[in-house]
Design a protein that fits this description.
This protein has 296 residues and is mainly alpha-helical. It has 14 helices and no strands. The longest helix has 49 residues.
Length: 296
């Protein structure tokens, strides 16, 4: 009888706790859904505008999916010459990503694992690159590129982007990869040396594969920066054949105040590769940021 009375007495105290937890969960997900809708709504509006007939795009631009005209993407791609701009962007983006990831990995490993005079000063010299704004260097850099004969060539954007002028380059890459290599255990490298591996083999066969999550996160950040870079090609790549997607989109949308459907379609043409790339590699990106790449 006493045990039954205790069980009956505890039931009313358990139910309010469960009710509060359920209300808290419902409120949390409603709050997250509200902010998710605010973030997704601009993309949905642009997609709806890109699929509208020309007569409906300016009449009521906030009416969602009132028509379906996928030919707008073909028209924007053809009229805007985005095929050429797409190739130019790839020519700049691929070497930039490879250069930043390879050089930052090697430099970060050397700063994390080797003892040599001036190591700390060299590291802070790289960090200094995060503090100097590009606007303070863009005019001297223009004359340097001109003297070297690199203006209006892909290297005029690739080399400054690797150096960090685009926002993501060696300064940030060295900082991330050094922190990641510092977090790896020394016993693995020592075991490889005992087996007869040199320092290059230790880095290439042991440490670099373990640093793959950090390198993946750095590659994604560099890809986003290189794909969307605007000021560098605007300043150092002149002429129709040298434009990238960012500068080509500016030119295409400049005189189309009434053709909103083509403007929206061109915007999605530039945005789609970024969204697809991030969706494919978001797991590697999150793993790289949470497994030691931002420690230290």
């Amino acid at each position: 009888m006493a045990e039954r009375e205790m069980q009956v007495a505890t039931v009313p105290s358990v139910r309010p706790v469960r009710t509060r937890r359920m209300l808290f969960s419902v409120g949390k997900y409603l709050f997250l859904a509200f902010w998710a809708a605010i973030c997704v709504l601009p993309f949905v509006l642009v997609l709806s505008t890109a699929l509208k007939d020309p007569d409906l795009s300016t009449g009521n631009p906030f009416q969602l999916f009132s028509s379906f005209r996928p030919d707008n993407f073909v028209d924007a791609w053809t009229l805007g010459n985005f095929g050429r701009y797409f190739v130019n962007t790839l020519v700049i983006m691929i070497p930039t990503v490879l250069g930043v990831v390879v050089l930052a990995s090697m430099t970060g490993y050397a700063l994390a694992r080797f003892e040599f005079p001036g190591r700390t000063a060299l590291f802070y010299l790289f960090i200094l690159g995060l503090m100097v704004p590009f606007f303070a260097l863009m005019i001297p850099l223009y004359y340097n590129l001109k003297d070297y004969g690199l203006l209006n060539t892909p290297l005029a954007v690739i080399l400054p982007s690797i150096a960090g002028a685009g926002g993501t380059g060696l300064p940030l890459g060295v900082f991330l990869m050094r922190a990641f290599f510092l977090d790896l255990p020394n016993e693995l490298a020592d075991a490889a040396r005992v087996d007869g591996c040199g320092e290059w083999d230790v880095f290439r066969r042991v440490m670099a594969p373990l640093a793959k999550p950090g390198a993946s996160a750095l590659a994604i950040l560099t890809f986003l920066s290189a794909w969307n870079t605007f000021l560098l090609p605007l300043l150092y790549l002149q002429g129709e054949n040298n434009r990238t997607l960012a500068t080509g989109l500016l030119l295409f949308t400049g005189g189309r105040t009434r053709e909103l459907e083509l403007t929206a379609a061109a915007t999605l043409i530039m945005l789609a590769p970024v969204v697809i790339f991030f969706m494919l590699f978001q797991k590697q990106f999150i793993t790289g940021l949470t497994s030691g790449a931002v420690k230290g």
